[in-house]
Each structure stands twice: as structure tokens, then as C-alpha cells.
Design brief:
Oligomer: single chain
Number of strands: 26
Distance between the termini: 103 Å
Helix content: 25-40%
Structural class: alpha/beta
Strand order of the largest sheet: 12-11-15-14-13
Strand content: 15-25%
Shape: elongated
Length: 676
């Protein structure tokens, strides 16, 4: 406990002394004890002993000298006023004569000096004197200021401003804290609160303390929450600072273990726990001043790595498809999946060959998720979509200023981003000869070099490539490196075209159509199974989207590739007037919108999931219908009046009625009637 001695001239005005003591105790809480001394009561040989000696006025500097051993502990009490009185003082008219009334001439002059020091002098302060008052010197003065001495103010003064007991100057409290070497979080907080409550003569000291306090808070937060245990030592190895993490690890730090050369990511073992240690020396030229140690716990590093992987997955740098997502019933596809699963358990390079739309990336993602790298990054790039220079910078990254338009900080390439994971290079047959050479080096050496750099970066990446071209033919034509071809096709995987596995068409159709599958007639299914699907699974999916949006399959209403004729057999729906009917399907008619809404409500009728307007608007947009929320309200009201739906309030949402289901099952010929 630190001791503060407060020295007064005498014991007069005890209430003012109590105010000073209360202010000090409020700021320093239970960290100090106070003891009062009075000059007029001290005797020869008396000594004032304390960690800090606070003088109530400069006039005591000479008087106190015989009673102290040294002057380094002396602080002269500075005074201020509370901010709550500032408004009244500033409202005094400019150049107004104002009486300053206090209990003594010394106190009056101290208060006068305080006002001038605070910068409050837009009016003229006149120290009150009884003799001058008796002589009538203060006639015409209507304002008076007094620090808690209202009884001394002449009664004829119209405006009396009582500023209360003068406050302790903030700089006095700050100097006390520094002299006593007190620096707790509570004390800092109390000083900040006090600083906000008083008028300070120097805004620089005010701002400097606030800035220092904020910097201290930032530093403490950074060091406490950074995940590092931080220790600082002087040149002799004595501990200068340790944050809370370091304090929790070391009861009595074995500082000798920290001696040695500077470095980063050094292995440090303490009590059977492993840490990565960074050691940085501090010095001025050849003079050693100390060093800083920062430690990261092995378990926290691994947890951070796991969190990073989770964040990467959330960001989308991951494979979302699995082999279970591949819809098939044919033996040829089952065999293909079997080969892919065996290949996934290795780290060999794969070359996936297949026509456009067969699902090459679906297989690549499934292979990644079936491998030991499934929790690591998966990145994919279409090599045919970028120019040679842009593709090179995307794959390998680049250093700052490597080329015009480059990011100032440079960029990490996809190979680096995919490190420990998988990179999928689609359309590999389209890369230039220059990139073929660089890719060959990556496969051989497991190393890359950023554009504009001479630094080699080691990587651990599983490479999967895909193409719809005949690479052997390109090799024979000299357009593709033979050595690269053999590097890529360590394990070749051929995905059959959809026309070669027609038994998979209906399962795929059912998957893509979902609840709309019941709307597809048997004749349409037969026609779709007979179609050759040059665009493979992608074309089938797009055709189903068109059916769900516009009500027809485009492949059944246009000439088949190579035939020049339309397949219009056996169905009035695909008769010679199909072109006109297709046009009518595109129009967002009320009947069609109603049918789409009934479809949605019917699909939800077997579940407890309510259906609200936001979901309806989203579903309509997906099906090519754009209407406002107001128009949807009107349409739902009309449908309810027809008995097609039932609108419930609150969370129950809207549901389809039996009449609505019957209307949904009826043929959708509303558009045909308009053109008959």
C-alpha cells in the first residue's frame, strides 16, 4: 500500500480538505493511504515520510523544506473546475466585470490564476476586498464567482456562480500515479473518467494521456488475444514483460532455454508440450538491449489449421460432390465409378476423358472427396477459358509489379492455394506449349515458381486433368508434348457418353425434374430415351429446366441433329402448330402463373413446411415469371376466391385445396383455347 502525505498550511476549511481527500481516494481506490500534515502544527525535528508528498499550494514549498528528507517526492497540487460549471461561466457577457470571492487573499489569487491558466478570460476578474467594497468600488457589478463561499458575496450582486470546491488538476493525479508506480486497469479507467469530468488547461496533456491509454489498451488486447505467449527480456536475461498466456505457461520461466540465435518457427519443448518459437533480438547498433520471445502452442496451431480448412470450405474452395451424387444404373457407369474409387486412394495423376457434359468435374470432385485429401482444398480451373499469360499467373501466382495490372502485393497461385489438396485442370488439351513445359516441371519436381520471381516453392498437390479432345491424336500432330501426356495419364478414366448408357436417362430425368416428374408423359419419356443427347447430361439437365419453366422439352420441338426433321410422332402436343404454342408458353399468363404456384403448393402438401410469399416469388423467378409482391397478393386472393388455395395467417402460410389439386391434374390447355 502506497502512502500519500497531503500538506496544508493549517486546519481551516476542513470541508475543502475532505473534498480533496475524497477525490484522491475515488481515483486510487484502495491502492493508497492518506495522511494530513499542517505546517502550523509541525515542530522542529518532525519529518514527513511518504511515497509522495502533495503540497496544497506553491507557497508551501519553502515552509515544508525543513520537514522532508528529499524533494523528489514533492508534487504541488494543481487545481481545476468541474465541466458542469463551464456552461454558466461561458454565458457571462464578454468584457463583463466579475467579482472573484474567496475566503482568503491567497486562495483568491490562486483561483484567479487557475482561471487564466484554463483560458477563461473573456470577462475581467476582480478579486474581492472588504475595504474596496466598503468604499463603494464594486457599484454596477452584477456578476460574482465563488468556490463554495457564497456567504461572502455581497447581497446586491444579482448573478452569483458557485463553482464549488476546486477540483484536483488531472496532471497532479497522473504525476501521483507515475511517482507511486501504480498502473492497474482500474486506476487507468478511473483516471480516464476523471479526465472527462474536469476542465484542463492543456489539451496536449489531455490528448497525450488518452492516446497513450488507447495505445496501451490496443497493445494489451493484441498481446492477450493474439494466440501467442509473449515474453520480453533485457540484455541480462531479466524478465521485463510477459502477457497472460506466457504467465499461464511458465510458473518460473526457464529463461536460459531461450538463449541462443534468433530465428522463426524454432521448436521449443517445455513440460512435454511442443511450441513454435520466434526469437528476435533488440539492439542499437552493436549494443544488445534485450530480446523478445513469442511462442505458439502445437495444439492451437493444429486447431487454427482445422479452422482455416473449415473457412476454406465455407468460401467454396472445396469439392461438394461425392460418388453418391452420380445418378446411374448402367454397368458401364458402375465400372467407371469403381475404377475412379480405386484411383482416388492413390496420389497418382488422373486424366479424365469424356465428351462435353458427361460430368468430368463431378468425377474429379468425387475422387477428391473419396481420397485422403478430402479435408483439404479443391480448386478447379478451365484452361480453355483464359489466355496463356493470364492462365500462367492464375496457376503459379506472381510477384508485385510483375506486369501491368498486377496487384501491388502480388498474388498466390492456384497451385499454392491447393497445397496438400487437389487441383483440377479442365480442358487440359487447350494449353499452350509453353505452359505444357511448366506443367511438366510441376509434375516432375513438385515445385513451382511465381511469375516474376526466382524463388522455388515446394508444393504437395494431387493433379486431376480432363479433356474432351483426343490427346493421342494431338501428340501425333505435335500439338501436345508426349512426355506430358504420359505424366498426365498415369491413370486414365473414360466417362461414357449418355447415348451409350440410355438406361441412365430416366433416373437422371427423375432427379432433375423432382416433383415435376409426374407431369412428363410416357410418350415424352420414350422420345427422350430415343434422343442421342449430343450435349450429354448437361443437355438433359438444361432440357428439364426448360420443361419446368416453359412446359416443353426443346429437344422434342426442334429438328434432331443430322436429320433435318422434327420428331412429332404420336402426340398432338408436338403437332405442326408447336412453334406457335411454344411462343404462348413464354408469355407470363395468369393461368400459367397459377399453375406454377399450384405445383409448388402441391409439392409441399405432404410436409409440415409452410409456404410464404418470399418463397413463392423465388420459385416463380426460377420458373421464368417475374411479378411484384403486390401482384402476387392479388393473384393469391383470386386463387383463394376460386377455392384453389387456402391462405392462413402467420406461420401456417398458404396451402393447396382439393379443388386446386384437381385443377393441377387437368390438362393445361388454357393457352390453346386462346388460339382456337
Amino acid at each position: 500500500m502506497k502512502k500519500i502525505a497531503i500538506v496544508y498550511n493549517n486546519m481551516e476549511n476542513r470541508s475543502a480538505m475532505t473534498h480533496i481527500e475524497q477525490e484522491i481516494e475515488k481515483v486510487f481506490a484502495n491502492e493508497v493511504t492518506l495522511e494530513n500534515y499542517y505546517i502550523d502544527q509541525l515542530k522542529e525535528g518532525d519529518k514527513i515520510t511518504a511515497d509522495a508528498i502533495l503540497l496544497n499550494g506553491q507557497q508551501l514549498l519553502t515552509a515544508v523544506r525543513p520537514y522532508i528528507e528529499e524533494t523528489r517526492s514533492l508534487i504541488v497540487l494543481t487545481r481545476s473546475i468541474s465541466k458542469k460549471h463551464l456552461t454558466e461561466l461561458l454565458q457571462i457577457p464578454r468584457n463583463e466585470n466579475v467579482l472573484l470571492v474567496n475566503d482568503s487573499e491567497v486562495s483568491t489569487m490562486e483561483t484567479l490564476y487557475m482561471f487564466y491558466e484554463l483560458g477563461i478570460f473573456h470577462f475581467t476578474l476582480i478579486p474581492f476586498n472588504e475595504n474596496d467594497y466598503a468604499a463603494g468600488a464594486y457599484k454596477g457589478i452584477s456578476y460574482a464567482i465563488t468556490p463554495k463561499e457564497v456567504q461572502l458575496v455581497p447581497r446586491e450582486i444579482e448573478h452569483v456562480i458557485d463553482i464549488g470546491y476546486r477540483e484536483i488538476g488531472f496532471d497532479t493525479l497522473a504525476r501521483l500515479a507515475d511517482m507511486l508506480q501504480l498502473s492497474s486497469e482500474t486506476l487507468s479507467s478511473n483516471l480516464i473518467h476523471y479526465l472527462q469530468s474536469v476542465v484542463e488547461p492543456s489539451m496536449n496533456s489531455h490528448n497525450n494521456y488518452l492516446e497513450s491509454y488507447v495505445k496501451s489498451l490496443i497493445l494489451n488486447e493484441l498481446l492477450s488475444d493474439s494466440g501467442f505467449a509473449v515474453l520480453a527480456f533485457d540484455a541480462h536475461g531479466s524478465l521485463l514483460f510477459e502477457n497472460q498466456r506466457a504467465h499461464n505457461i511458465f510458473d518460473k520461466p526457464e529463461f536460459a532455454d531461450f538463449e541462443g540465435k534468433d530465428g522463426k518457427n524454432l521448436l521449443f519443448t517445455y513440460r512435454d508440450s511442443n511450441y513454435l518459437m520466434d526469437r528476435v533480438s533488440l539492439g542499437n547498433g552493436d549494443e544488445k538491449l534485450g530480446y523478445i520471445i513469442s511462442l505458439r502452442d502445437e495444439h492451437e496451431i493444429r486447431e487454427a489449421e482445422n479452422q482455416l480448412n473449415r473457412k476454406i470450405r465455407e468460401k467454396g474452395v472445396f469439392a461438394k460432390y461425392h460418388f453418391s451424387d452420380i445418378i446411374c444404373q448402367t454397368d458401364v457407369m458402375s465400372s467407371c465409378i469403381s475404377i475412379a474409387k480405386k484411383a482416388a486412394l492413390t496420389d497418382f495423376t488422373l486424366l479424365i476423358h469424356g465428351e462435353s457434359g458427361t460430368g468430368k468435374e463431378l468425377f474429379a470432385q468425387s475422387i477428391h472427396n473419396y481420397s485422403q485429401r478430402k479435408n483439404k482444398p479443391f480448386l478447379a480451373i478451365n484452361c480453355a477459358a483464359l489466355s496463356e499469360n493470364l492462365l500462367e499467373s492464375e496457376l503459379f501466382g506472381y510477384e508485385p509489379g510483375s506486369f501491368t495490372g498486377a496487384q501491388k502485393k502480388g498474388k498466390m497461385g492456384l497451385f499454392e492455394q491447393a497445397n496438400t489438396g487437389t487441383i483440377f485442370l479442365d480442358e487440359i488439351g487447350d494449353i499452350s506449349s509453353g505452359l505444357q513445359s511448366k506443367l511438366l516441371r510441376v509434375l516432375q519436381e513438385k515445385q513451382i515458381m511465381r511469375v516474376g520471381s526466382d524463388k522455388i516453392i515446394n508444393i504437395d498437390v494431387r493433379v486431376i486433368t480432363a479433356t474432351n479432345k483426343d490427346l493421342r491424336q494431338l501428340v501425333s500432330e505435335g500439338k501436345f508434348r508426349e512426355d506430358l501426356f504420359y505424366r498426365l495419364s498415369v491413370i486414365p478414366l473414360e466417362i461414357p457418353a449418355l447415348r451409350e448408357r440410355k438406361n441412365d436417362i430416366l433416373p437422371l430425368l427423375s432427379y432433375f425434374a423432382g416433383s415435376d416428374y409426374h407431369r412428363i408423359s410416357e410418350k415424352e419419356k420414350n422420345l427422350l430415351c430415343d434422343y442421342t443427347w449430343p450435349g450429354n447430361v448437361r443437355e438433359l439437365e438444361n432440357s428439364v429446366i426448360c420443361f419446368k419453366t416453359l412446359g416443353f422439352f426443346p429437344v422434342l420441338n426442334t429438328p434432331l441433329p443430322g436429320t433435318g426433321t422434327s420428331d412429332t410422332s404420336g402426340s398432338d402436343e408436338y403437332s405442326s402448330n408447336s412453334a406457335a404454342k411454344n411462343h404462348n408458353h413464354i408469355v407470363n399468363t395468369k393461368e400459367r402463373t397459377e399453375r406454377i404456384l399450384l405445383d409448388l403448393l402441391y409439392s409441399r402438401s405432404s410436409s409440415y413446411h409452410s409456404t410464404g410469399r418470399p418463397e413463392m416469388l423465388h420459385y416463380l423467378r426460377e420458373n421464368g415469371v417475374l411479378i411484384s409482391d403486390g401482384r402476387l397478393r392479388e393473384l393469391l386472393s383470386e386463387m383463394e376466391s376460386k377455392g384453389l388455395i387456402r391462405i392462413a395467417r402467420g406461420r401456417r402460410g398458404t396451402s393447396i385445396t382439393e379443388k386446386g389439386i384437381m385443377a393441377l391434374d387437368a390438362p393445361d390447355n388454357s393457352e390453346d383455347k386462346k388460339h382456337q
